[in-house]
Amino acid sequence: MIRRLGHEPLISRNPEDISRASHLILVGVGAFDSGMAQLSRMDLVEPLQRAVKQNGSFLLGVCLGMQLLLDGSDEGSSMGLSLIPGRCRRLSPTEHYKVPNMGWRELIIRNQHPLFNGLERDSRFYFVHSYAAHCNDESSLLATLRVDSTVTAAISDGNVMGVQFHPEKSHRFGLTLYENFCSL
């Protein structure tokens, strides 16, 4: 999707590449502890934290990547990247979704953010998750699910952003979100 927008993405595990990047996307599918273990094995925890805190790089966490931005998760015992204060908690099934929460969902925008510029009110994004972020600071909450306003869909703190959904599977809505991120 980034190429489709006219940018040339670099997929890298090299800490030097991370430190030079103006924009970083941290993707992930799977469990919290294994995601953090993988980042630790590749010696990427400190470079990611430095890129954001010292270099001012923009960072977008996607799905598990968003959860890893937080302090930790009920899914495991590992510490997260601690870039946005908060913790992930397991979802409980409701009349609107089972767990894992899978499918297309509309959002309620809680705090305006450039990530959502140009998106229509009925924009839909594709979700697959069993855990949801709970931020310590209400101002970090960008969006929730329309079907359940207690489920976090997007978060932000300065140059660090996260989305629980998969923009790459969300057609034109995801493309717009990535375009907005690349324009920051």
- Name the average pLDDT: 96
According to CATH, what is the topology? Rossmann fold
Approximate helicity band = 10-25%
How are the strands of the biggest sheet laid out side by side? 1-2-10-9-8-5-6
Tally of discrete structural domains: 1
Query: Ranges with pLDDT <50 over ≥5 residues?
Result: none
Supply the CATH superfamily name: Class I glutamine amidotransferase (GATase) domain
CATH architecture: 3-Layer(aba) Sandwich
Number of helices: 5
Report the count of strand segments. 10
Q: Describe it for me?
A:
The chain is of the alpha/beta class. It has a single domain, classed as Class I glutamine amidotransferase (GATase) domain (Rossmann fold), CATH 3.40.50. The chain is 23% helix and 29% strand. It is built from 5 helices and 10 strands. It has a 7-stranded mixed sheet with strand order 1-2-10-9-8-5-6. It has a 3-stranded mixed sheet with strand order 3-4-7. A hairpin with a 6-residue loop joins strand 8 and strand 9.
